[in-house]
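Revision sheet: structure tokens.
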Amino acid sequence: MKSKIINLFRSKLILTLFFLFIASLIISLAFIQYDLGPHGGTVKNAGVYNIELKNSYPIFYVFLLDRNHMPIKNYGITCDAKFIYQDTTSYNKALMPYSDDGFYSEYTSSGFNFCKINFNIRGRIVSAIFENDISIVKKK
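Predicted:
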């Protein structure tokens, strides 16, 4: 009788631990997915805005998003990127409008460390810095 109670307790404990593991896995995946923007890119906070960068090497796309990650129309907005290399040199590039809510350009080189995206919204500059995940992939 005592061994049946112990076995029942073990079964319930194992089942409870299994459900806790599954629940924590689902919660952690939800947080990972939250960093993805509506276009499938990486999102960084930029004050009252968010900036999404989507890599499709050799082309990259950037989108200005509101607080709720909804795209903002690119009418009246300009965008540029500053590529910062390991030796502290940098290269500035103006981006071209893409569709009605984004900007794009080709990478000049995949060897940069960071990319600073700057949106000019009627004289107000909104920026975010992104790490180069292309060079990280190439190193592995």
